[in-house]
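Bench notes, afternoon.
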Amino acid sequence: MGCCDTPGLMPIDTAISNMLESITPISLVIDLPLDKAVGHVLSENIHSPINVPPFDNSAMDGYALRSSDLEATTQLPLAGKSFAGIPFEGDWPQGTCIRIMTGAQIPQGCDLVIMQEQAEVNGDLVDFTPALPVKPQQNIRPTGDDIEQGALVLPKGHKLTSRDIPMIATLGIPSVSVFQQPKVAFFSTGDELKPLGTELKAGEIYDSNRYGIKVMLEKFGCEAIDLGVIPDDKEQLKQAFQQAQSQADVVITSGGVSVGEADYTKEILDELGEIGFWKIAMKPGKPFAFGKLLETEERHSALFCGLPGNPVSAVLTLYILVQPLLAKLAGHSQWQPQPSIPAVSQTRFKKVPGRTDFQRGIFSITEQGTLEVSTTGNQSSGAFRSMSLANCFVVLEQERGHVEAGETVHIQLFSPSFY
């Protein structure tokens, strides 16, 4: 244990490694239409069945010709036209040119396209003097220039994005084989939590965490199963765990894992499964729990992640700790956390050594290209406005203390799951 380590708290990297070691990726494979596949993970490599483009085509609107024909004259008569989808057909006499559009198939024998802006039409002739000198293959996109037939286009374990879909469509592939998305059942716990739109009484707050959890799970590429709010009642909580376990690969709770709260969650996990660890050396988010709900005759086994009840803590632990777990479960072998990059602090950040601190910040780039970052204000684990205003985490190392303006810190830009 280092000089700044806090007894009883597990370092973040250790916690993530322990979770990942206990996970076997989902092996169930399904076929999906291409327009339904975004966010799913490929279960097999995709190789191109064709060349892209499938034929030599023009990169410009202009004129197709043989470069050798310009050796005798720079003025050539038109012999025909070639449009996208309607290629030139028939004989192409020597010493003539063909009007051609962008994407149109190159006529047999053509080794040059001159863009229309570099040609002048004089009656029945096209003058190419302004285009000289020319080079063979100029403005021609050759067969397979983008993707060659048989080439590996996307590997197994790749999570499909909106950028991938048109590329796969270009190959003429109508559907893809992907892994079944992880099913995640989640619920909040606490008598004080009330539905949105109702009038609050003394001591009550709105149930906000479930909304953040749901949208983030869906952006992670999971099937989110919302089981609502469970009151602080052991029997109801146990039933909720059993229902969640029967429906999902992962069970996530919000609240009920902090010191001083009802010990129902711990008691129930002791009955239904096992707890791997309970406290993490991070701020906010120390009371994070991980474990398993064990298989029974009625229910398959499921992973368990207990998030803190404070809003910022819940979202942060889901983002930092649970996201890599879900990525591995989904078969997303290429997943990587956002990199940390240096920035100059423009404000003071309060920090006590002992835990890795994820403070919320706003980064900007100066005219000189320097990366700067400022605090978003109140860094309490219950103050979600600081998260809403932020575009990055300011990651303050476990052993670090207060940060003064002008010091260098490391920031982690938000991934798309936060937008």
